[in-house]
Write a structure and sequence with these properties.
It is built from ten helices and eleven strands. With about 300 residues, it is α+β, with helices and mostly antiparallel strands. It is elongated, with a radius of gyration of 20 Å. It starts with a helix and ends in a 16-residue tail after the last helix.
Length: about 300
Amino acid sequence: MRHRETLDSHVCPDPFPRGRRVYEDATSALFEVDGKAHTLYCQNLCLLSKLFLDQKTIYYDIGGFLFYVLLSKQPATAVGSFSSPADATEYTFVGYFSKEKSSVERNNLACILVLPPFRGQSYGQLLIELSYELTKMEGTTGGPEQPLSSQGFHSYRSYWRRAIVQALLGVLPQAEKYLRHSCGRKQHTSEAVVEQRVFSLSRLAQLTGIRIEDVLFTLEDLGLLGTWYGKHVVCIADDTIQQVISTRRINPGMRMDFSGLQVDNDTMQESLSEQESDDSGPNSSNSDNESSADSS
């Protein structure tokens, strides 16, 4: 732009970041933005992702989607960052993922984008982990919209392996304790469940938030699936799992910090009620699915 006045006319007067903060750790923060309440902002997110995702198809009909915007927390002198007047913290846009407010196919992610300068820094894995944590807090299971791109498939397979291995080793129940405390869901009320070490497919799906078909694929991929009286049951010794971790070079650690989740039972119920209100409205309709998930 040749003139300062032209540049100023394109500056958005609305505060940044916008939406509801649902996660924050020492280096990043995630904000939930309703596509219906912030239409232009979310349309611009979709148009931005089209520059990097060839299969992106939804740009304007985004009222039925929620957008989760990931920001990195930068030093005060960082160039190209935006300050938040509330806490004097400066943020830089890293990427986002979107999901349908009501998905018949139980998709918890429709489109995912991490900008090229931030790839290779585990931000893609952080977005995937957060999408599943939000799914577990809703008391259900889910997965990415199909079909996955090649890069998206490898990213999700990596997450599925880590989540399943953590569940089998008894690490994920730590997250389940958090869910019992914050959400009070029925499947998180029994202390005895935390110590259970005999796993069915439904049990693993409940623990991880991963759809049963994806759990089944991951167990077969790792060679950990067996049958007992004609049913698929997993009961694996720790030594066997450690051997799988070593041979498959699986990093069982998670990128996210569970203490950084800022969605409690009240805010989750509020979000769900808003989704139900949108679905029952007179103009509600099934919009076309967003593009297949891509990840970095």
